[in-house]
Each structure stands twice: as structure tokens, then as C-alpha cells.
Design a protein that fits this description.
Distance between the termini: 26 Å
Shape: globular
Radius of gyration: 14 Å
Largest sheet: none
Order of helices and strands: HHH
Number of helices: 3
Strand content: under 5%
Helix content: 55-70%
Number of strands: 0
Structural class: mainly alpha
Length: 57
Amino acid sequence: MVTSSETTVKVSKWLIQSIDNHINKNNKNKSEFPSKRNFVDRAIIKLLEERGVDLDK
């Protein structure tokens, strides 16, 4: 049995559409954020770092 440390979360349709619109706005965004998942992961990491959360643990 394969286990994963990842957790699936639900994201509202309007947020998914907004992320898609941002990523597809130009080629720079497409190369910087290859997927919606990548965009969300990076946004959450940035928010946590700004709030002083130590992510190295």
C-alpha cells in the first residue's frame, strides 16, 4: 500500500477560475506557474512565511 503525506483540499470554482485567468494571462505566468496546484502551493507558502511560520520543521 502506497501512502502519501499530501492532503487534498476543495477549492471553490470561482477561485479556480481566477487562478486559471491569472496563469493564462501571459506566457510569463504560464512558465512561473505550470499548474493551479503549483500556484496554490506557492501562494500558501508565501502567506505562511509572511506570517512568520517556520516551514523548515
